[in-house]
Amino acid sequence: MNDVEGAQVLDEKEFAALYDATHPRVFAYAVSRCGRQLAEEVASETFAVAWRRRADIPRRAVLPWLLGVARNVTRELYRDEVRQTALENALRGWAKEVTGDVAEEVARRSAVLSALVALSDEDKELLTLVSWHGLSSAQAARVVGCSVSAFFVRLHRARRRLEAALLVPKEEEACGGR
User: Which own/partner pairs from 77-86 qualify as long-range (CB within 8 Å, at least 24 positions apart)?
Assistant: First the structure.
């Protein structure tokens, strides 16, 4: 891997170890971006790109680099409308799985998933990179291609929009279900 001039390219065994260590997280990222149906295709193409560009993989930031590749693969395969529709349908399906008299934690999960459907694709990505994928702000900033300070501003705004989206169902209940 690289980070210094003259670094060696990963051999097959090293690449297989990298794949084993990172595939579940790359797949999870792909699921959060385009739904479970298309995630394996995105993950497979991500690792195909990584294999071809294995000399470019940074030693200290493997996962953010791979997620950046997955992000680009997703953009190439499923431009805005098709990808957005698939993800919204998946989120609605997950939100509908929870019905009836359930524990408060499960109800909260359902409310968050429903609120996520209302957010822009960019907001969903920022929130899930940090919350679901466990990346630091610096790592997530690298994935989306911006500075850490710009990422903090975007994340703050996305969180505010999520909070507002979470309030909408409560306001509708108070107004008699409008």
Answer: 77/34, 77/38, 77/41, 77/42, 77/45, 78/34, 78/38, 80/121, 83/33, 83/34, 83/38, 83/121, 84/121, 86/34, 86/35, 86/37, 86/38
Q: What is the pLDDT of residues 129-158, one digit of tens each?
A: 998 888 999 999 999 999 999 999 999 999
CA distances from 120 to 16, 141, 163 (A): 35, 17, 14
Separation of alpha carbons 137 and 161, rounded Å: 18
Name the pLDDT band for 37 (thresholds 50, 70, 90): confident
Q: Cα–Cα–Cα angle for 63, 65, 67, nearest 5°?
A: 70
Tell me phi and psi for residue 53, to 5 degrees: -110, 30
Q: Report the helix count and the strand count for the chain, using DSSP H and E.
A: 8, 0
**pLDDT attached to residue 116:** 84
